[in-house]
Amino acid sequence: MAEIDCGYALEAVEATSVASGDIDKTFRSSCIDLVSAALGGKILGFSDEWFAEAANLLNPAAPIRLPGKMVYTGAWYDGWETRRHNTAPFDWVVVRLGVASGTVEGVEVDTAFFSGNHAPAISVEGCFSQNDDEVLSWQGGRGGWEPVLDIRECGPSQRFAWKLATAATEKKKQYTHVRLNMYPDGGIARFRLFGHAVPVFPDDAGAVFDLAAAQNGGVAVSCSDQHFGTKDNLLLPGRGKDMGDGWETARSRGKGHVDWAIVRLGAPGYLQNFVVDTAHFRGNFPQQVRLEAVEWRGGGEPGPDAPGWTAVAEPIKCKPDHEHPADSSVTDRPFTHVKLTIVPDGGVKRLRVFAKRAV
């Protein structure tokens, strides 16, 4: 932990540093980025953004560099950068999560391309509130914030991450908002808050809704390939903006090749119907998709060849840039995971799994 005397004490939080090369495999297979702009994460306020906008922090894409590009305030940076010589203990940005609420497993701060103007240290605080205005009124003060991650040192142009030790051992706290603090000023390219959505389910047990949606706790836990677009995009809201925010695999050359992605539903459910959307995939959509499901009671997550996978819909012949609906052929037993298989490869924008919760 960084020794920074800023007059704003934070209770120590037990957390383990994660090597930059291990961040994705540590968090991406079991968690979602709760503050991603693609999920609906939103910047509510900040202390300063003179050199670069705070909204860049939540961009799901990797940061980029444009050497030599100058704007009114100076060199252009793909991140959040504040003025020099901050007289307050820290600069801050308040973020509302893109889900109703969430529990946190880990934090990532990426200072890519910030060198000499990077953030020396950060901390993260969280709260649970339904009042955005009240949360924002606390600004850089104590308010109702509690520590998610205490002060941690950063450095130039590198991904930093910490895994919370309490994630698996204690009852997890739910947050609706977080505040990223930067000591005392500088630049950060990206901010990720890895965790799990805590959805607000309807009281009506017969209600049908999308149990695969990330906002309802769905997680894409594994896939065969994600060369051009990550599997996590399958579960995002809306139909996206272009091919870049879908799941797309590399071109296959082998006979009989298929690609697959496995989704853990936000809750066990009785499957009713599906939508497989190939929006924006016009010359690279799959020829066919298949849907299977399993009620998994084993440890970890089921693999593609795990016992118990059951076909739950007729194979779908795909069209370009099209929503493909399908009814579930098995509605009388609950499932925990769905496997989407694409034949032989290609791109899918979204997968919707409409179901009744098994309560």
Mean pLDDT across every amino acid position? 95
Give the uncertain stretches in residue-range form. Answer: none
Gyration radius, in Å: 21 Å
The overall strand count is 25
Q: Which structural class do the helices and strands define? A: mainly beta
Note the beta-strand portion: 35-45%
The geometry reads as: globular
Total of DSSP H or I helical runs spanning 4+ residues: 2
Domain Allantoicase: 40-197, 217-357
Enzyme class: hydrolase
Organism: Lasiosphaeria ovina
Function: Utilization of purines as secondary nitrogen sources, when primary sources are limiting.
What does this structure look like?
It is built from two helices and 25 strands. With 359 residues, it is mainly beta. The strands form six sheets. Strands 15, 16, 18, 19, 20, 21, 22, 23 and 25 form a nine-stranded antiparallel beta sheet that branches. Strand 4 and strand 5 form a beta hairpin. The mean pLDDT is 95.
Features:
single chain; 359 residues; mainly beta; nine-stranded antiparallel sheet; 2 helices; 3% helix; globular; Allantoicase_dom; hydrolase; Galactose-bd-like_sf; purine metabolism
List the helices and strands and how they pair.
Elements: E1 15-18, H1 23-27, E2 32-33, E3 42-46, E4 70-71, E5 74-75, E6 80-81, E7 91-96, E8 102-110, E9 121-127, H2 132-137, E10 146-153, E11 159-164, E12 177-183, E13 187-188, E14 190-197, E15 208-210, E16 219-223, E17 247-248, E18 259-277, E19 288-294, E20 310-311, E21 316-317, E22 323-327, E23 335-343, E24 347-348, E25 350-357
Antiparallel strand pairs: 1-11, 2-14, 3-7, 4-5, 6-13, 7-12, 8-11, 8-14, 9-10, 9-12, 15-25, 16-18, 17-24, 18-22, 18-23, 18-25, 19-20, 19-21, 19-23
